[in-house]
Write a structure and sequence with these properties.
The chain is mostly beta strands and 640 residues long. The protein contains 3 helices and 54 strands. The strands form 10 sheets. Strands 1, 6, 7, 8, 13, 14, 19, 20, 21 and 27 form a 10-stranded mixed beta sheet that branches. The chain has an 8-stranded antiparallel beta sheet with strand order 5-4-3-2-9-10-11-12, with no helix packed on it. Strands 32, 34, 36, 38, 39 and 40 form a 6-stranded mixed beta sheet that branches. A hairpin with a 2-residue loop joins β15 and β16. The radius of gyration is 50 Å and the shape is elongated.
Length: 640
Amino acid sequence: MRKLVALLFIMLLPLAGASTFSGYIGVPSTVGIGNYTVNIMDVSFEDGSLLLAVDSPNWSGIKKLPLGGTLYLGEMNLTFKRVFIGSNPLVLLSANFPYLLPGQNVTLGPYRIEIISVTQNGVEVKVSYGNESQTFKSSFRFKNLVANVSGFFPVYSGYLKLNESFSFAGKTVTFTGARVENTTGGFIETVFFSYNNETYPISVGNESRVGPFLVKVEDLVGLNYTKVDVHFLGVSMNLTIVPNEVFSLAPGQTRNVGPYVFRYDYYLGNKLKVSLLNPCQVVLTSTSLVVSNVSTLLYHKGLTVIPLSIDANGTAQFADFINPEELPSLDKVANVLVSLTDGNARQYIPTTIRIQVENTGNVTLSNLTIKFVPGDVKVLSGREFFLKSLKPGEKKTLELVVIPMKSGNVSAGRVTVTAMAPYELACGGYTLLKFSSNELTLHVRPTKVSYSLNVSAPANVSLYRPINLTVLVKNTGEEALPANLTLTVPPGVAMASSGSIFASGSNVVIPLQLSPGNESLVTFVLIPYTSGEKSFKVAVVSVPGIVNETSFSINVRGGENEGNKQPAQTVTITETMTEKANSTVTVTVTKTQTQVRTVTKTTTSSVPYTPFKTKIIWLVVGLIAGAGIIIAIAWYQARS
């Protein structure tokens, strides 16, 4: 009875021809299954036959396979169904092959499938295409390869009599003996199996691999019967290489196929006139496709279109295959390598950054705009450049000057480039490309910026009397950075200035250029024309901003002074302009007003007093006389 159960179980198992393949493969290419390899070397344009190079354990050599023929190689057979002739020919093949074991692989044109493992938890396979690979644990689709995968097949469950066997997929395991040992820990029962002349011991209650099988020993009855549960560690696969799309068109219709437009122009019998266009309706290529077992195809830069059939009304069915790596792409023909370099950098010190632009593509680029996008730096020079053209392999170096405002690792910025490049899929034949550089990091050493200020001014002064304000400024830092000494003048105070002093509103600015350790003494002549407490501020402003400042006040007394009063004088105070009051003093204030003041002046001199109006009158007379003399001399020279 036990033999009958085992026999029935084995009869219900799948047959050995467990895996299949059907699909389109390019020429030349390779089909390899286990130890069998078939290289498809060439196709005949006359009869469509294939020239094959065969390598197998039993035979190797060159063989011609006619259309519709089948190549038999042991457990594997390969059938040649259809051919599509063109610049990149395709063949339609089908194949049958046995189960695959862990470590074995299948090659189908550009695809390689490797069996990683088979367990009760499932099957793990690795699929590769060129440099790409992916791991799957069940049925999958990878690019154009579709696979239904199964494994870990139950083979036998029940009792085996001594010297009985179980078989699957042409592989056999035999129960060859048993042993019972009495140890201090109890009885140990061991069952022995034989596969390919090797013996495999398994203790009762354990499981172990025996060749391509996983055998679990559940019981031992005496020494002649053992109960086992067996699984086959093989994989069955149904593989198909399919087109990207299958579609139908009537004559005159178009369809977007990848980046192209495919147009079915007309037909004549089984010949189809087709064209391939870019999105701007410019014809890139045209050809005639023949619908038969020996067909023709259209190929253009990554796209293959084959005719499958045509009906009585001329409606044709097509299939397309797209290889993204071969499609027109500006990444493959146009490229700009943009890099940033620099020298040693100091904080607040100008440093030069070099921009290197190199055309590493194989087409000439035109109208290049190079823009520098700054980081934590200030740009002193222009940040945008223009190049009319850049030939393949040509390199240009551009320079700009920046000031690092921080120390340490400072992001200087990056460069963007836009350029025009020829591109067949673009309307007008050109397209705009964008490139970017690395992010440049400057290693910036810190710079000490420091100035000391020593201000000297009287605490109390009289109205309308000039006073001297002196400022001693010293560079106590590490570098001779550009700097300004600024004096904030309050309302009611005018200042006599020289050519090196610049006024802006209430601020007076003097440029400084001091080397480290050097100092400068600056004197301001101030004239108060309103009484009260006047607040001043002196500051040094450099590249980082205000590096030192100090404030002070001067008390201006009213207009009643001790001494003899003199006749009233008219005092004109001019603001926002510079005017010569006499031959040596220039008065600069913030507004213009005329005031009549009685000035009390104490004097011990016997010098006669000359009224101010009289001085003005004689000054005007002198100016008019002088101008008349100059005009007379010019007239005389012109006459002569």
